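Figure 3 (text version): structure tokens given as input.
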């Protein structure tokens, strides 16, 4: 096997692995969903502070 054939094999292998990783990441991100119950629990807290309550 000469150097040029080896280079083609290495490039094709790298492109295959890179495409596999990218598609796996995209597939994993599309399947993540947050249940509605959890969404209600993680709503932001009001930043206003009532001093009258402490008195």
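Below: residues designed for each position.
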């Amino acid at each position: 096997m000469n150097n040029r054939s080896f280079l083609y094999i290495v490039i094709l292998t790298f492109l295959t692995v890179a495409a596999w990783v990218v598609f796996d990441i995209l597939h994993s991100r599309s399947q993540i969903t947050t249940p509605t119950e959890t969404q209600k629990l993680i709503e932001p807290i009001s930043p206003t502070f009532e001093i009258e309550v402490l008195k």
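Residues 3-54 form one domain.
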